[in-house]
Amino acid sequence: MNYTENYKGIKIDVQAPQVDLPEGLQAQIRKSIDKISRFTHDINAVDLYFNISGTGKTAERILGMRVGIPGPDVYSEEKGKDRWNTMLRSVTDKNIRQLQKDK
Q1: Helices 25-37 & 84-102, crossing angle to 10 degrees?
Q2: Cα separation of the two ends of the chain
Q3: Domains of the chain listed by start with CATH number
Q4: Is residue 20 exposed (0-12), middle (13-18) or buried (19+ Cβ within 10 Å)?
Q5: What is the pLDDT of residues 36-93, one digit of tens each?
Q6: How far apart are CA 24 and CA 41, in angstroms?
Q7: Which of 32, 40, 59, 85 is surrounded by the most beta carbons within 10 Å?
Q8: CA distance 77 to 79
Q9: Rg of the chain over CA atoms, in angstroms?
Q10: Which segments of the chain does DSSP mark as H helices, in order?
């Protein structure tokens, strides 16, 4: 599932090759962007990369988030067996910490 949308002037690009994302994740992505927007108002784009590495019991979910802002972008990644929503909250919080550190 891949899609692109414009949310409040922010280009959202979701890339999830060979991954079926759950219903409601799109709303969770928008909530994450709203949360990040409280720490910087200069977001141009948000790219999300959903992937699964391995198969069966060794399968590991990988979620990366890049927040495009003027200057260097911030990027964080989470790997594990957690649900996508949990991983999305984690990468959102990691990116917020990077934005706060850069201030």
Answers
A1: 10
A2: 35
A3: 2-102 (3.30.160.100)
A4: exposed
A5: 999 998 999 999 999 999 888 889 999 999 999 999 999 999 999 999 999 999 999 9
A6: 25
A7: 32
A8: 7
A9: 13
A10: 25-37, 84-102
Residue 75 Cα distances to 18, 24, 54, 57, 59, angstroms: 22, 23, 23, 28, 23
User: Position 38: which residue type?
Assistant: R
Joined together, the tokens standing for residue 23 give 């219903």
Which amino acid, 31? K
Q: Cα–Cα distance between 14 and 29 in angstroms, integer?
A: 10
Which amino acid makes up residue 22? Answer: P
* pLDDT tens digits along 56-69: 888 999 999 999 99
- The two tokens of residue 52 are 């699964």
| CB distance 98 to 76 below 8 Å | yes
**Tokens of residue 75, six digits:** 């990027």
